[in-house]
Predict the 3D structure of the following.
Amino acid sequence: KLRVIFWSEAYSQYQSVIEKDKPLVVVGNSSFSGEFIEIVADQAFGIDEFVDKYVEGFKIWVDIDSISENAIEDMASKLEKSDKEIKIQFFIKNGKIKKNYIAFNQRFSTSKRNIDLLSEIFGEINVRLLISNFEKPAKKNGNRWSKN
C-alpha cells in the first residue's frame, strides 16, 4: 500500500493537479511505515504534464529469440507520430550476447496508446519510459538549503 503525504506548503502549490482517481507523479522522500510505503511530497505532476516535461523516450528490452522480426518491423508503422523528437534505447539479448542501441531523433509520441502498443509487442515488463535528468528541488535544512 502507498500513502502520499502533502504538507500544507506542497499541498497549496500542487492541489490543482490532485484529483480523485487520477494518477499522479509524486516526487519526494519515501520511507516504510508498517504495511505502507509513505512518500512525503515535494512536487506533484499530472501524468500528461510530467510526460511533456521530462520523458525523453522509451527503454525497450528485446529478447531476439522470443519476438518475431515482423513485430519489430511493424512497430514503426503502428506508433503515433509526434513533432517532438525522442530517443528509443534498445537493450538486445541474443542468447548470451547483449547489446545496447539508441535510436535518436525519432518522431513518435510518448502517449499512453504508444506505451500500450509497445508493451503488447515487447511485453509490459520490457518497456519503460526514458526520463530526462530530473532534479528534486532544494529543501530547507535548518537555516541552509540543500539537495536531498
